[in-house]
Design goal:
heterodimer; A: mainly beta; globular; B: alpha+beta; outer membrane lipoprotein receptor (LolB), chain A
C-alpha cells in the first residue's frame, strides 16, 4: 500500500474502530478464542531506588534500595494438579548481590473437601492491617522498611498446607518442617538497636542469629479453625514453633529464636458503614514461662481492635489499636541486666491508614501511620502509585521513623528514614 | 390509554407483548431486575473490558463471572476471577449480595495470599479501574430508589428513578429505557443535581442464550471527561448447576477450575 493511501484510509479505519471496539482483537494472546489456555507466562521487570534522608554513621552507604529485578510467573495444570511458579531474578545494588528468590514453587490439588498446597509458598491469615498477631508466617521487614512493594513484606516459606472445608467449621493446617524466621534487621542495610551495646549496631559481617537445629522436631505447626456466619468471620488459631524475630540470646550472647506457642482468636464483621475487626493472641514463651530469664522473651498477650470505612467515595479510612502486654514484667525487670532497655509492660500502638484513589484507580494516594504513645515513637509510610497503563506503574514513597528513646522498635530506625521510587513494567 | 393501545395493536397486529403494556413502574423495574441479573438459576460468562480514558489511552481487563441466585429476585452470589492484565491475574472477587442488609464482599490478592474484605460503602466507585461501578456488576437494589414510569414508547418503557437516600450515591436521578419485549434496560442516563446527564450506560448487543435474552456488549460513557468502558460478554451459559460452596472463601484461594472452564457445547 502506498503511504498516501494509508493516510487517506486512516480516518476511515479510526471510525470503524470507534463503532466496534471489539474489531481490534489485540489482546496479546489468544485466550478469548482458544479454549485450552495452556501455560501463560507473565511477570514484570522493576527498577527501584531508595536513599536515606541523612547518613547512618554505622552503615557506609546512603542508598537503601537499589533493585533491578525480573519476575517470572506461570502455572501448569497437569490432570487435577496445579503447579505454580513465581520467581524473581536480578541484582541488589545495596547488598551487592544477585537476587534469586523463589516466591512460589508449589503443587496444589483438591480432593473432595480437602485442598492441599505443598512447596514454597506465601501465606497470610489474621485480621490485622500490617499488624500480625496470629499470623506467624515469615515476614521480610527489611524489604518493608526499604520501600519494596507490599507483596515483599510476606516472605515465602517451604510448607505443607492442608485446608479442609466443612459445613461445621473449616480447618487450615500448615506444617513448615524447617523453621522459617522473619527476614530481620541484621545491620547490612539498616542498623539496629542491640542492648548489649547500649545503642545501634551494624555488625560486619551482618548479624546471623542462631537458628534452631534443622530438625523435624523444630518444625512449625500452625492451625486455624474458621467459619463465616451471616457475614461475620470467626477464627481460632494455634501455633507451635518459635518467635519469628531473634529476640532471645544464647548463653554465649548470640541472638536466637525462643520457642513459642501461641493461641488466639479473631472476628471480622460489618458494623455501621464499615468493617470492625478484633484479634487476640496469647504468646506462651515455652522456655521462660516464669518471666525470670532476661535472655528469653516473656509471655505476652497481644490484642487488636480496628475499624475501616469508606469516608467518602474512593477515600477509605482505617484505625487500629494494638496492645503488646508483656506478662511477668516485674520479674523481667528484676532479672534484666539492662532494665532501662526492656520493653514497657504495655506497649500501645495506634495505626491509621488513609487511602484515596483518583482517576478511576489510576492514582492511589496512601498513608499508613504507626504511632506508639507508650514507646513515644512513630513510623509513617506515605506513597503515591500511578498506574499509567496496564504495563507501566510508577510508585514513589517514603519510610519515616522517629521517636525519643534509642531502644524502641521504630526509633531504632530513625537513621533509616528513606525515600524511594519504583518503576515497574508488567508483561 | 390502555384500551386505545390494545385496539391499536390489534389493528396493526403488533406482537402480543405490545398489547399488554405494563403501567406499574415497580412491576417494570422488578422485571428489568430479573432480566438483567437473575436469568436462570445460575450462570457463567466471560467478560472483557476496554477502558478508554479521555486521551484515548486504553486498558484491558478480562475475567470470568459465576453467579448463583440464592432465591429468585433475592439474595445472590458472585465470583469474579481475573485473567488479564498480568498484575491482576488470579485476583478473585467474591460477593454475597443481600437484599435485607449490606452485601458482603471479599477480594483475594494472590501476591500476599491476603483475603481482604471490602467495606459496604464502597459501591459506586470504579470497578477495577473501569467506568463501571462495583454496583453495576452485581446490581443495584430496586428498593433503593423511587421509580416513575414517564413514557411508554413502541419499544421502551422510559422510567425515572430517584434515590431514597441521596447521601449514598453520586447521582441525583437516572432514567432507564427498558426494552418492552426483553425487559433489558437498553440505556441508562445518570443526572447530577444540575439536571445534566453526566454518565450513560448503553447496551449495544443482545443475544439469546438458553432462552434468556442476554446483553453481549455494552458501553458506559463518562460524559464529563470523555472516557468510556466497553464491555463484552461471551461463552455465556445458564443453569449450569453451580453449587453453593463455589461461593466461599475456598474459591478465593483455589478458584473452582471445574466451573470456570469454558462450556463444551
Amino acid at each position: 500500500m502506498k503511504p498516501w493511501l494509508a493516510l487517506l484510509l486512516l480516518p476511515c479505519l479510526a471510525v470503524a474502530q470507534e463503532d466496534d471496539p471489539w474489531a481490534d482483537e489485540d489482546w496479546g494472546d489468544d485466550e478469548w478464542a482458544d479454549e485450552d489456555q495452556g501455560m501463560v507466562w507473565s511477570g514484570f521487570v522493576e527498577g527501584a531506588l531508595g536513599t536515606r534522608f541523612s547518613e547512618d554513621p554505622l552503615v557506609n552507604q546512603r542508598e537503601t534500595l537499589g533493585d533491578l529485578r525480573a519476575r517470572i510467573e506461570t502455572e501448569w495444570q497437569p490432570e487435577n494438579l496445579t503447579v505454580g511458579l513465581k520467581a524473581d531474578v536480578g541484582y541488589d545494588a545495596v547488598e551487592s548481590e544477585w537476587i534469586g528468590e523463589l516466591r512460589d514453587l508449589s503443587v496444589s490439588f483438591s480432593r473432595g473437601k480437602l485442598d492441599a498446597k505443598v512447596g514454597r509458598q506465601v501465606q497470610t491469615w489474621g485480621t490485622g492491617d500490617l499488624l500480625f498477631l496470629n499470623d506467624l508466617f515469615p515476614k521480610d521487614f527489611v524489604s518493608f522498611f526499604a520501600g519494596r512493594d507490599d507483596e515483599y513484606l510476606k516472605a515465602p516459606g517451604d510448607a505443607v498446607r492442608a485446608t479442609w472445608y466443612n459445613d461445621t467449621v473449616n480447618a487450615d493446617f500448615v506444617w513448615t518442617p524447617i523453621f522459617e524466621p522473619d527476614v530481620y534487621l541484621n545491620g547490612e542495610r539498616f542498623s539496629f538497636f542491640f542492648p548489649l551495646a547500649g545503642g545501634n549496631v551494624a555488625p560486619e559481617p551482618p548479624l546471623r542469629a542462631e537458628c534452631p537445629d534443622k530438625d523435624f522436631s523444630n518444625g512449625e505447626f500452625a492451625l486455624r479453625l474458621f467459619k463465616t456466619v451471616r457475614g461475620r468471620e470467626y477464627a481460632f488459631y494455634a501455633y507451635r514453633g518459635f518467635f519469628k524475630q531473634p529476640s532471645a540470646l544464647t548463653p554465649d550472647l548470640r541472638p536466637t529464636f525462643a520457642p513459642l506457642n501461641a493461641y488466639g482468636a479473631s472476628l471480622r464483621r460489618p458494623a455501621g458503614p464499615g468493617l470492625f475487626n478484633a484479634e487476640a493472641s496469647y504468646y506462651d514463651s515455652r522456655d521462660d514461662r516464669s518471666g525470670t530469664d532476661p535472655f528469653t522473651p516473656n509471655d505476652q498477650l497481644r490484642l487488636l481492635a480496628g475499624y475501616e470505612w469508606e469516608a467518602k467515595p474512593s477515600f477509605t479510612v482505617g484505625f487500629q489499636y494494638y496492645l503488646e502486654w508483656t506478662l511477668d514484667h516485674d520479674d523481667l525487670i528484676a532479672n534484666s541486666p539492662f532494665p532501662e532497655f526492656e520493653p514497657d509492660e504495655r506497649r500501645h500502638v495506634l495505626t491509621n491508614r488513609l487511602t484515596y484513589r483518583t482517576g478511576r484507580d489510576r492514582y492511589t494516594w496512601s498513608m499508613f501511620t504507626f504511632l506508639s504513645p507508650s514507646d513515644r515513637d512513630f513510623y509513617i509510610r506515605p506513597s503515591l502509585t500511578w498506574r499509567y497503563s496496564d504495563e507501566w506503574t510508577f510508585t514513589a514513597g517514603a519510610n519515616l521513623f522517629g521517636g525519643d528513646e534509642p531502644q524502641t522498635f521504630f526509633n531504632q530506625l530513625a537513621d533509616a528514614s528513606n525515600i524511594y521510587l519504583r518503576v515497574r513494567f508488567n508483561y | 390509554m390502555r384500551t386505545l393501545l390494545t385496539v391499536t395493536s390489534l389493528i396493526l397486529a403488533l406482537p402480543s407483548f405490545a398489547a399488554d403494556a405494563l403501567t406499574d413502574a415497580d412491576e417494570i423495574v422488578t422485571n428489568a431486575n430479573l432480566a438483567s441479573y437473575y436469568a436462570g438459576a445460575d450462570g457463567r460468562s466471560e467478560v472483557r473490558m476496554i477502558i478508554t480514558d479521555s486521551q484515548g489511552r486504553q486498558q484491558r481487563r478480562q475475567f470470568t463471572v459465576l453467579r448463583r441466585n440464592v432465591e429468585e429476585a433475592g439474595d445472590q452470589q458472585f465470583l469474579v476471577v481475573f485473567s488479564q492484565p498480568s498484575d491482576v491475574r488470579n485476583t478473585v472477587f467474591l460477593v454475597d449480595k443481600h437484599l435485607e442488609r449490606d452485601d458482603d464482599r471479599w477480594l483475594y490478592l494472590p501476591g500476599l495470599d491476603l483475603v481482604k474484605r471490602i467495606s459496604a460503602g464502597d459501591k459506586r466507585t470504579s470497578f477495577v479501574g473501569a467506568h463501571y461501578f462495583y454496583e453495576d456488576v452485581s446490581g443495584r437494589r430496586p428498593s433503593d430508589d423511587e421509580h416513575v414510569l414517564v413514557e411508554t414508547t413502541d419499544d421502551y418503557y422510559v422510567l425515572d428513578h430517584t434515590p431514597k437516600d441521596a447521601g449514598t450515591v453520586e447521582f441525583a436521578s437516572y432514567t432507564t429505557w427498558v426494552d418492552r419485549q426483553t425487559f433489558l434496560p437498553m440505556k441508562i442516563e445518570y443526572r447530577n443535581a444540575a439536571g445534566d446527564v453526566y454518565r450513560r450506560v448503553e447496551v449495544t448487543g443482545v443475544e439469546e442464550f438458553d432462552g434468556h435474552p442476554t446483553v453481549t456488549t455494552s458501553r458506559v460513557s463518562d460524559l464529563q471527561t470523555g472516557g468510556k468502558t466497553d464491555m463484552q460478554f461471551r461463552f455465556i451459559k445458564y443453569d449450569v448447576g453451580l453449587p453453593e460452596d463455589v461461593f466461599t472463601e475456598r474459591s478465593l484461594r483455589s478458584p473452582p477450575r471445574e466451573w470456570l472452564a469454558r462450556p463444551k457445547d
